[in-house]
Amino acid sequence: MEKPEVVVTKDEGSEGSESTETGNNRRAAKHGPRRIRGDINKKKRESAEAGSEGRRIQVLVFYSSLTASTEKIARTFSQELAASLGCSTEKEAESRFLAPRVLDLAEIDFDEYFITPPKSESEPADCFYLFIIPSYNIDSINDTFLEHLRETHHDFRIDTSPLATILGYSVFGLGDREGWPTEEEGFCFQAKDVDKWMAKLSGRKRAYPLGMGDWKRDGKERMSEWTAGLVDVLRQLEQTGTLGEGVPGSGDPLESDDEGEAEDDGEVPDEEVSVSKAAKGRSSGSLEDVEDIGRIMEASQGGDSGKRSAAPLAIDFTTEGKPAAKKAASAAVKEMVPRSSPTYAALTKQGYSIVGSHSGVKICRWTKSALRGRGSCYKFSFYGINSHQCMETTPSLSCSNKCVFCWRHGTNPVGTTWRWVVDPPKLIFDGVKENHYKKIKMMRGVPGVRAERFAEAMRIRHCALSLVGEPIFYPHINEFLGLLHGERISSFLVCNAQHPDQLAALQHVTQLYVSIDASNRESLRRIDRPLHRDFWERFQRCLDILRERRFRQRTVFRLTLVKGFNIEDEAEGYADLVEKGLPCFVEVKGVTYCGTSTSSSAGLTMANVPFYQEVCDFVVALEKALRKRGLQYGIAAEHAHSCCILLASERFRVDGKWHTLIDYDKFFQLLEEKGPDGDFGPEDYMGPPTPEWATWGNGGFDPRDQRVDKKGRPIEAA
Ligand SMILES: Cc1cc2nc3c(=O)[nH]c(=O)nc-3n(C[C@H](O)[C@H](O)[C@H](O)COP(=O)(O)O)c2cc1C
Ligand code: SF4
Predict the structure, then answer these.
(1) What is the rounded distance in angstroms from the CA atom of residue 273 to the CA atom of residue 257?
(2) Ranges of Acidic residues compositional bias (predicted)?
(3) What is the pLDDT of residues 116-154, one digit of tens each?
(4) Which ligand is nearest to the CA of 73?
């Protein structure tokens, strides 16, 4: 059967296994591109079939080059891509892919490729555009090319997204970090522009994040990551005909920010706005989640390891003493969050993926922010967590408190007794990972996502067990932790100080948090609104356990300050609690207002959110109160951006320097050597000194990242 092939008539012969357009008249570029007709070449391909199944895919690799290095790089890249896809010239007859074409931007007619994609005369091949673009701060073909893209987008006679029929695109930028060390100073600025304009012209078909590198430094490494990611995307295209979720035109665009229509920007994601935007559009996403659960459940029923407990455990948490596990009649035991329940619908609408019947996972805003190089959460500054490699999850969506500032009460189930079906840890572990990766992949087409961080994000390294609900409520929490640690994923577990028996039975975690939401009984009752009658006694007992465990677990008090509830005159009371529990660290954070009707009904408004200065004043007062009691604590670090300050025990000050970072490799090594109940403590995996920029007085914003305001405009770090 006759098969078309997109080719371009050439001045020079092709080299290697790919057809290549080389430039020999770059001077012409200054006066606009030279017109060379694109055409469709008919070529034999025996095994091809008609219809979308048999449609060929033509990868076009566009490049520009002043000093010739990019030309070579583009050709080598193209050969490697052809080898990975099995479509070099000799093999292309057997492949769905045609051999990639390498095209010099200085030689082609832009109208042939950038007003509409090249068309074939008979059977069409769909195009996939790749760009390898160096940047120059002097006039070059890049300027002409960018001008063409801009004009095309704004030409009222042409559709604003005339390239929407391409399968996808991706850009790799080359630059020189010696002369242009940072992006703000112009590193790869033209690649960023091409990426932005192509998003507009293609109707946001960014198939893989923008990659950037300096060939003299990290260029090869960055490019091989980018290439590996592209091969995955192209394979997916070949198999499914789509780019996957998150990329408009091919799947679910829920996590994609609007590329916008504003003049020359469009990349204006506001983290808060994007959260609500995403939430708004999530109705279709929740359907996806529902289907997932179905798959996970089916899979779980297939194998032993994933099987649910035939007779679920009923565990009474209301009274202290050893948890009494007894078999209940399976017919009587319900799922905590059944798929048909309003709770399920409400949680999935908010972006949670429900795994099994009582666990949840959600990609947090800091993970998204870090993927775009716009800052990580305070745990990066304090403990060295990479936010883009962090998974936020919980094995129990249910909780025994109804805290006034909880983001989710009203939607998440509450109870003092585990009276639901218990899912096995493996089912939860596999399900949360699958859903986390799925959500990360959905970020692929989001403007500003960095190829390097995207590639790193495909390896979870940290798990924040803090989403919503109470993780130690889950009867198999230790087994679940074992699965995390087995894959060298660190655990940051936050509990609500209401389950002393479970706390006492907890094995090693990387960092163990207890929420300390008030300094006295009445205040705790008002803020946490606990379901347990003996909440204060439970709270006190948890503090005793933390004290006993302080040389075994890396313990942290987490204080959430709510103006009008728990700040005023409470520094002395908190100091008493610190004296009782002697935690390794005290994290103090201003409450984040979430504006739910429940928080409003609890009397919470924006007026309850403290200013950063008020948090600072409180911390200074707390430190003073601790010193007055002879307790050796100091203010170690801050993250002004998230209104969070860290007090640390002098145990973590070595030679006058705070060491709040964690040596994760050492933690896993100790765990492997000594076991989950092993005899080792926080000092044994204490990391290097806290970076200067994160210490008290320096703001805590990672200097590698770029802070942006609500409209995405760069701002100076505090
Ligand atoms: C005149 C000139 C201007 C440059 N301007 C920039 C720049 O603004 N930003 C940047 O990241 N790199 C800049 N570079 C570095 C080039 O983008 C980089 O060296 C690239 O790999 C060159 O590719 P080529 O050899 O294909 O032209 C510049 C290089 C030259 C020679
Ligand atoms: S620690 Fe929490 S806030 Fe930070 S990246 Fe992980 S989930 Fe997000």
Answers:
(1) 10
(2) 254-273
(3) 898 765 567 899 999 999 999 998 999 989 999 988 888
(4) 1
